[in-house]
């Protein structure tokens, strides 16, 4: 049985402790705050056996060198090998399959936010989860720092949208309320956005995480995963999903959320 523990880090980042409860083996996703990650593993009484790094940005990969020093040079650190993640020793290529205890893990190469971005699809016999770093957020997506609208459209609407709808989405940042406010500005008549926004505001007021969502939910309220829908294309005055993706990202870059 898979158990996922979100661990807040820095200002609005998420690390995750992903545990196979049958074996007690666990992996940590994006351990920027190594002390906090190890403390979580200790409190959960699990055996930390790997680190999964989504991309090289400091707020996700900044703890890898310290983690290797604490855990030993042979401790498995997975991620894209382009020389930008310190202490990396298990290069993650697209569709690489490996195990964390009894959990099956597949790395999905989703370049755009960075050229080496990896999402990790994890499952057991009953549950499915994907750790999306800064590619897919709840109701949003990452900036196109090293890629194009076509790249992000492929990442979201070919690679990630092909996962089962029940797959839980664990993203790298707590941006949900502002993302939903932007989504509402695009699709004002979408009731799924309204319902999720009301819920997310309540969660935020209680200082509780809004993760996870699911792939199925994202298809209903995330404008970046709805770029082929007339309700998104028409207000943007474009007729092509990639053009819609480009325009949405440009709009989001300058959007000021009034929370």
Automatic annotation (TrEMBL):
Keywords: Hydrolase, Metal-binding, Zinc. Pfam families: HAGH_C (PF16123), Lactamase_B (PF00753). One of its GO terms (biological process) is methylglyoxal catabolic process to D-lactate via S-lactoyl-glutathione. Gene3D superfamilies: Ribonuclease Z/Hydroxyacylglutathione hydrolase-like (3.60.15.10). It catalyses: an S-(2-hydroxyacyl)glutathione + H2O = a 2-hydroxy carboxylate + glutathione + H(+). InterPro entries: Clx_II_MBL, HAGH_C, Hydroxyacylglutathione_Hdrlase, Metallo-B-lactamas, RibonucZ/Hydroxyglut_hydro. PANTHER family: BETA LACTAMASE DOMAIN, TENZING NORGAY, ISOFORM C. This is hydroxyacylglutathione hydrolase. It comes from Steinernema glaseri.
């Amino acid at each position: 049985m898979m158990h996922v523990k979100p661990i807040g880090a820095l200002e609005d980042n998420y690390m995750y402790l992903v545990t196979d409860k049958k074996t007690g083996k666990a992996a940590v996703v994006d351990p920027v705050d190594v002390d906090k990650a190890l403390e979580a593993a200790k409190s959960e009484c699990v055996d930390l056996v790997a680190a999964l790094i989504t991309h090289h940005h400091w707020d996700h990969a900044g703890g890898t060198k310290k983690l290797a020093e604490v855990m030993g040079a042979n401790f498995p650190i997975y991620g894209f090998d382009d020389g930008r993640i310190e202490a990396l020793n298990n290069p993650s290529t697209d569709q690489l399959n490996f195990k964390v205890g009894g959990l099956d893990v597949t790395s999905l190469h989703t370049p755009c936010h960075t050229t080496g971005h990896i999402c990790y699809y994890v499952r057991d016999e009953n549950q499915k989860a994907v750790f999306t770093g800064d590619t897919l957020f709840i109701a949003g997506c990452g900036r196109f720092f090293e890629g194009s609208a076509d790249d992000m459209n492929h990442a979201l609407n070919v690679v990630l949208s092909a996962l089962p709808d029940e797959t839980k989405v664990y993203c790298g940042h707590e941006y949900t309320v502002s993302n939903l406010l932007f989504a509402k500005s695009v699709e004002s008549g979408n009731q799924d956005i309204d319902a999720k926004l009301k819920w997310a505001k309540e969660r935020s007021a209680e200082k509780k995480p809004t993760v996870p969502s699911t792939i199925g939910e994202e298809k209903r309220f995330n404008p970046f995963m709805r770029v082929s829908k007339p309700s998104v294309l028409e207000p943007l005055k474009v007729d092509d999903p990639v053009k819609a993706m480009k325009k949405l990202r440009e709009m989001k870059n300058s959007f000021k959320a009034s929370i």
